[in-house]
Design goal:
Length: about 575
């Protein structure tokens, strides 16, 4: 497997340059039913449209339960069940614009309720089921959630904070509400009262259908609102970035509590009528490979953390599984280390397509496409229809290889329509006229490929140079002893900051001064003279968000003995 793919195997985006120069969004808009008088609603386009054509009996969802049992749902099934759910919600008193949380494990009911909520014009708030009671409370109070769909064990988790959830009127319980409080109703009862032929409500393009809280890597999570018009970009990125085709079976490992889990995990693939697999269980290398084998997964979307964990599990494990159906892998959410791409080619025999986006962008923005030569370490090029640039503080575009702020030309379809009750925060993104400023640092090369350096807050200033932690972390994991690492700048009298690396070793290696020395020398030969870690600390784990991202601000605060700020998203 190579970094360049033969033209006959280019997939949906045959010729990037041509499509980029000819592209216009209205051609995508014409694909939706609403352009022919149908309801303007993400649920109508993701589900109901297919239930009216030959896809009615096509599998929409294989919901794999934690122990491996499978529940199958056709597009017709999901259409009917989400209609029942939507109309049951209305009977309960829900109205357009209500915030309704879905706090569930990755079961079929999660998908059905998110679709049902959007169908009746509600704003779905999917919450990762690993969240603790305080994290749920913060979010419920922030946006005034009126209803929460949950399960008995998660309801019990919320009991200690129940009195604080002042806006929540009812809990809709999946799995029976016997013995639970009077503020509950079972999902069966709700759906039995609902109309299976309920029609999706037509919304305005900028009406929000979902509220996603960001990962909390840099501070307190923000409640990002995405509008129904995001569908336009979600459809096209699932076609061009994820490269989905009619016959694909697709698995996105991201939990629907995060934007990846809904934009390219539910809605995007369903706009295209693709069959998706969901898995309730947690990460486990064997379970994951066997899922790909069993469902003949042909496109797989995951994240760098998961790929690094698979690498750590060893190259022998994968040999026991037949992954021959798999065409390629996509990765987003964190920088993808070149070493991981090489491992993908060598051990999995597959290309990994890195793509960059944020909760706020609603869909992928910069990507490596199937037809494009991959440059390991680069996030790729902007999607057709979008302009991405590297600018200085005045908004002036910088020449190739000069580092600056990664910026986007505002107005792409999936751009957030607001941050819940926080207009000042929303406005901050647009402070440099003409641009949306992402908060990440990057540079472009001569061919227009974009390279990620780090978050603006994480950039290290050492010996008068600016350095992104990603570069150092990527060099470190090339060393055979290093499984994972987190790098920060530590204040230093002489150099401003020095590079400090926290390292998790691979199984079979033990910490020692000699190993530190060896790793230091290894990095020195690969990076600029100032970029090697002057301090190394071996650790058993790294602080990560619940969505799996390294929290460098926590490493730094601990190192400096300072307060780490909001920790509700720290995965312990
Ligand atoms: P918060 O905004 O709450 O601090 P967060 O930024 O991690 O958390 P998300 O919206 O989930 O929340 O993540 C977006 C960020 O993730 C991007 O700004 C970027 O820093 C990082 N990211 C996403 N995809 C990539 C990628 N392909 N390469 C490098 N970084 C990425
Ligand atoms: Mg962010």
């Amino acid at each position: 497997m190579e970094l360049t793919i033969s033209p006959r195997d280019h997939g949906n985006l045959e010729d990037y340059d041509r499509t980029y120069s000819e592209f216009n969004w209205s051609s995508v808009e014409r694909e939706f039913d609403w352009s022919n008088g149908g309801a303007y609603n993400v649920a109508a386009e993701a589900i109901d449209r297919h239930a009216r054509n030959w896809r009615r009996n096509k599998i929409a969802l294989y919901a794999v339960q934690a122990r491996g049992e499978v529940r199958k749902f056709t597009f017709g099934d999901i259409a009917e069940m989400s209609s029942r759910f939507a109309s049951g919600l209305e009977r309960l008193g829900a109205v357009r614009g209500d915030r309704i949380f879905v706090f569930l494990d990755r079961t079929a009911e999660l998908y059905i309720s998110v679709l049902g909520i959007t169908k009746m014009g509600g704003i779905a708030g999917p919450l990762f089921s690993a969240l603790g009671p305080d994290a749920v409370k913060d979010r419920a109070l922030d946006c005034g959630a009126r209803f929460i769909v949950t399960s008995p064990y998660l309801y019990k988790r919320l009991e200690p904070i129940m009195d604080d959830l002042v806006d929540v009127e009812r809990f809709i319980i999946v799995g029976g509400n016997d013995g639970l409080g009077e503020n509950t109703i079972s999902i069966e009862e709700l759906m039995d009262s609902g109309n299976p032929n309920y029609q999706a409500v037509s919304m305005e393009p900028t009406d929000p259908y979902i509220i996603h809280y960001t990962s909390g890597s840099t501070g307190k999570p923000k409640g990002v609102l995405l509008g129904h018009k995001a569908m336009i970009q979600q459809l096209i990125t699932c076609r061009y970035v994820v490269d989905l085709m009619e016959e694909d079976t697709y698995w996105c490992t991201a939990d629907p509590g995060w934007v990846t889990g809904t934009s390219v995990g539910i809605f995007g693939p369903w706009f295209l009528g693709t069959t998706i697999v969901s898995y309730e269980g947690r990460f486990d290398a064997r379970a994951w490979y066997s899922l790909i084998e069993r469902f003949k997964v042909s496109v797989w979307f995951t994240a760098p953390t998961a790929l690094r964990m698979l690498m750590r599990a060893g190259d022998e494990v994968v040999k026991g599984y037949d992954l021959s159906a798999l065409r390629h892998i996509c990765s987003a959410g964190e920088p993808l280390n070149p070493e991981v791409i090489r491992w993908g080619l060598d051990v999995l025999g597959r290309r990994i397509h890195d793509n960059w986006w944020q909760t706020e962008t609603g869909a992928p923005c910069i990507s490596n496409y199937r037809s494009m030569t991959i440059k390991p370490g680069s996030m790729g090029k902007p999607i057709p229809g979008m302009v991405a640039a590297v600018v200085d503080e005045n908004g002036t575009e910088l020449p190739p290889r000069q580092e600056g702020f990664l910026a986007l030309r505002p107005g792409w379809p999936a751009m957030m329509v607001g941050i819940w009750r926080n207009t000042p925060k929303f406005k901050e993104y647009f402070e440099i006229p003409g641009w949306y400023i992402s908060g990440d640092q990057a540079y472009k090369d001569e061919e227009g490929y974009i390279w990620f350096l780090g978050r603006v807050d994480d950039v290290i200033k050492t010996s008068g140079e600016r350095l992104g932690p990603f570069e150092v972390e990527s060099a470190l994991i090339e060393h055979p002893a290093v499984a994972e690492s987190g790098v920060i700048g530590k204040p230093d009298q002489l150099r401003g900051e020095i590079v400090k690396a926290f390292i998790i070793l691979r199984p079979g290696f033990t910490p020692s001064e000699r190993l530190k020395e060896e790793i230091t020398v290894f990095v020195k030969t690969r990076l600029a003279y100032y970029a090697y870690p002057r301090e190394i600390e071996f650790v058993d784990s790294l602080p990560k968000t619940r969505s799996g991202k390294i929290m460098r601000r926590v490493l730094k605060a601990r190192e400096l003995g300072q307060s780490p700020g909001d920790l509700t998203m720290l995965d312990e």
